[in-house]
Write a structure and sequence with these properties.
about 300 residues, about 0% strand
Amino acid sequence: MKPAALAAPSCPAATMPRTAAAAPPMSAASRFSPLQVAALAAKELRDRLRNRWVLAVALVFAVFSALITWGGGAQQGAVGLRSLEFTITSLVSLVIYLVPLVALLLGFDAVVGERERGSLDLLLALPITRLELLLGKYLGLAAALALAMLGGLAAVGIALGQQFGRAGWFHYGGFVLTSLLLGLAFLSLALLLSVLARDRTQASGLAIALWFLFVLVFDLALLGLLVASGGRWGGVWLPYLLLLNPADVFRILNVFSLDDMRRVFGLAAIVPPALGQPWLLGAAMAAWIAVPLALASWRFKP
């Protein structure tokens, strides 16, 4: 008698696991999340507050702005607040030298520093996109820069408001706003340098070179061209080249805000009225903020 063949136990159809052929869900990193950007920005701001960077820069702004405001006329034998035009003119010169340098030093290692420390890959392993990472870092650094500048320039603003009333508040408020825009423009450039640089040493060197180019060399080169040609070259288009420098855009915005200030600065004296339109200068400053950020997002690779 042949043994009965062993049959595999049959599993009821109701207990068989079913695999649904559903499409995989969209990854969280493939969607832009403002909450992720806000969280990254808050972390960046907390880091700057924790290491006392904001306090240190605010003190620098406060000391220099107070010295220039109350002691700027010592060479003429006068100490203290003089005219509104004189005060803002002196502070414009301070901002052109100081704000670009502070913004570049603040942001030059935002990305390349993370890459050197090995934390960039860890950040990108989280469910965040490269755009969210860049925007979060930029907004956090921008908030730190804005807090430092507002804290440092507040004392002078209060003094001007008490001395000159609403006119002082209005013109000084415009000056502070354009100063913040200048800082944001150079912070965008710093983030672009941080994305393009191979290491922190190269990024810091490029940041200093960029400061020299825009703050010192650019205007001297245009003036040299104008003087060397006897006014024959660039008579028409030379003023519009000022839009290629965010520091000059800032200078023109403040020079054209007060009539008595238009004859103070060198290249600003040749600016035609058409170039002094606030909407054109505002658009140029917005471009200096947006374009470097867009290029940084395009070139950013882990």
